[in-house]
Design brief:
The chain contains 5 helices and 6 strands. By secondary structure, it is of the alpha+beta class. It has one domain: Homing endonucleases (Endonuclease I-creI), CATH 3.10.28. The termini are far apart.
């Protein structure tokens, strides 16, 4: 099982000496509300700075095009988001859930979120 998941999410770099994380080609087939809940529990955090109060998804390992693919999956769930560059020198991107979509995100993922991780939704 681990090998199958690893081969979906990682590929060898151009030199062939290490693995890099990628968005699987079939992501639209395997993505679901439950996937989003796990994604938030794993790589998400609640940003309570200022008036923001929204979820940030840490997608630093992915290239911009892959982040855009991930945003399109959110859009299919009627969740609006923006792509923020975290480090211009390294091309690190993060997906920020729009504040206007937070009620929707909470309604979708709360039933699949362990109580210990509700703080990641600001709850």
């Amino acid at each position: 099982m681990y090998t199958a998941l690893h081969s979906l999410w990682y590929k060898k770099n151009n030199e062939g000496n290490k693995f890099i994380k990628i968005v699987p080609l079939n992501i639209s087939e395997i993505f679901s509300v439950i996937s989003l809940a796990y994604w938030i529990m794993d790589d998400g955090f609640f940003d309570s700075y200022g008036r923001t109060k929204t979820v940030i998804l840490c997608t630093d390992s992915f290239i911009e095009e892959e982040c855009i693919i991930l945003q399109s999956l959110l859009e299919k769930l009627d969740i609006k988001s923006t792509l923020k560059i975290r480090n211009k020198n390294k091309n690190n991107y993060r997906i920020r859930i729009s504040k206007t979509s937070m009620d929707r995100v909470i309604a979708l993922v709360k039933p699949h979120t362990h109580n210990d991780f509700l703080y990641k939704l600001g709850l």
